[in-house]
Design brief:
By secondary structure, the chain is an alpha/beta fold. About 35% of the residues lie in helices and about 15% in strands. It has eleven helices and 14 strands. The protein has helices at about 30-35, 40-55, 95-110, 125-140, 155-165, 175-180, 190-200, 220-230, 260-270, 290-295, 315-325, and strands spanning about 15-20, 20, 60-70, 115-120, 145-150, 170, 205, 210, 235-240, 275-280, 300-305, 310, 310-315, 330. The radius of gyration is 18 Å and the shape is globular.
Length: about 325
C-alpha cells in the first residue's frame, strides 16, 4: 500500500487546476501544519478564503435518496449496506422511476437544489446504467441538479450518464492511501481513481471526499485532504463525513472523533480547495448546533437535507430550517 506521502493522482503530475486557474500543490506536511495551527488562526484563515470565493451566508442543499439499498458485495468496514455484515439492512431491488420522481419533487418542494441518487452496487451493469440514466433525465426535467453514486464506472458508462444530463458523480476516496487497506479490501485505491478519471473525461463534475473518525491518525487525515486537493482538477464538491457507527459493522465501537478536530478538517478542506463546495455530510445527526455552526464558519457551504442519508439518520428538515434561521444562513 502506498505511503500517505506518495502522490497518488488521476493522470497529470502537473500543478492541479480548478476552472482553469493554477492551484497550490500541497504536501502532507503542509496540511499537517494547517491542522496544528491555533484554532482561532485556522478559523480566521479558512473564513478569509471562504469569503474570497463564496457568499459566506449561503449553503447549498442536496437531498440523497437510496435508489437501490443493501446487498453490496464490497467489504467497506463502515457500511451497513455490505452483504458481509449483519446490520439489519435488507437487499432491495432498484426503486421504480415514479417513486424516484416523487421523492425528487418532495426534495425540491422543501428547498433542495440538487438531488443525489445512490445505489449499493460494486459496479453497475450496462442495463442498470440505462435505468439510472432514465432517472437522471427525468429528475433534471424537474429543474434539479443531479448526482449519482453507483460504484465503479467504465468510461462508456460515464459517457452514457453524461448524455442523460448528469451533473455530478460521487465517488469518495474514503481515506488516505496508507489507511485504505485497513478499511476496504474488495477494491483498490487506484480503482477509485480510475473511476474518477472516467467521470472527469466524460465531462461530469466530480463529487469526492472521505470519512473521518474511522481510527485514522492525524497524518492519515491530512493524507486524505492531500489526495483531494492535489487532483489535477480538485472536486467541485467535497463531502466530509464523520463516521456514523452502525452496529454490526467492523467500525462500530470506535472512539469518536473530537468535534473540534472535525471542524478543523472542514477548515483545512476549505483552505486547500478554495473553489470547491465543502459539504458537511454524514454525522450531522449526532452533532450539536454549536459544532455545525463552527463548521459553517470554517467554510462548509453545502449539506445533505432530509431525514435519511441512504440508510442512516440525518437531521429533519425543520431542525435545519431552524438552525439556518438562528445563524442567518440562506439556502441555495
Amino acid at each position: 500500500m502506498e505511503s500517505q506521502i506518495t502522490w497518488v493522482q488521476n493522470k497529470s503530475n502537473t500543478a492541479p487546476t480548478h476552472a482553469g486557474e493554477a492551484a497550490t500543490r500541497w504536501t502532507v506536511e503542509q496540511i499537517e501544519a494547517l491542522f496544528k495551527l491555533p484554532f482561532n488562526d485556522l478559523m480566521f484563515k479558512a473564513q478569509q478564503i471562504h469569503r474570497e470565493n463564496f457568499n459566506p451566508n449561503q449553503v447549498q442543499l442536496s437531498t440523497l435518496l437510496s435508489i437501490k439499498t443493501g446487498g453490496c458485495p464490497e467489504d467497506c468496514a463502515y457500511c451497513p449496506q455490505s452483504a458481509k455484515y449483519d446490520t439489519g439492512v435488507e437487499a432491495e431491488k432498484l426503486m421504480p422511476l415514479n417513486e424516484v420522481l416523487q421523492a425528487a419533487q418532495a426534495a425540491k418542494d422543501k428547498g433542495a437544489s440538487r438531488f443525489c441518487m445512490g445505489a449499493a452496487w460494486r459496479s453497475p451493469k450496462d442495463h442498470q446504467i440505462e435505468q439510472v440514466a432514465e432517472m437522471v433525465t427525468a429528475v433534471k426535467g424537474l429543474g434539479l441538479e443531479t448526482c449519482v453514486t453507483l460504484g465503479m464506472l467504465k468510461d462508456q458508462q460515464a459517457k452514457a450518464l453524461r448524455d442523460a444530463g448528469l451533473d455530478y458523480y460521487n465517488h469518495n476516496l474514503d481515506t488516505s492511501p496508507d489507511f485504505y487497506g485497513d478499511i476496504i479490501s474488495t477494491r483498490t485505491y487506484q480503482d477509485r481513481l480510475d473511476t474518477l478519471d472516467n467521470v472527469r473525461d466524460a465531462g461530469i463534475k466530480v463529487c469526492c471526499g472521505g470519512i473521518v473518525g474511522m481510527g485514522e491518525t492525524p497524518t492519515q487525515r491530512a493524507g486524505l485532504i492531500a489526495q483531494l486537493a492535489n487532483m489535477e482538477t480538485p472536486p467541485e464538491s467535497v463531502p466530509i463525513n464523520n463516521l456514523v457507527q452502525v452496529e454490526g459493522t467492523p467500525l462500530a465501537g470506535r472512539e469518536e472523533l473530537d468535534p473540534l478536530e472535525f471542524v478543523r478538517t472542514i477548515a483545512v478542506a476549505r483552505i486547500t480547495m478554495p473553489k470547491s463546495y465543502v459539504r458537511l455530510s454524514a454525522g450531522r445527526e449526532e452533532m450539536s448546533e454549536s459544532t455545525q455552526a463552527l463548521c459553517f464558519l470554517a467554510g462548509a457551504n453545502s449539506i445533505f437535507y432530509g431525514e435519511k442519508l441512504l440508510v442512516t439518520d440525518n437531521p429533519d428538515s425543520l431542525k435545519d430550517e431552524l438552525l439556518f434561521k438562528k445563524l442567518g444562513l440562506q439556502s441555495v
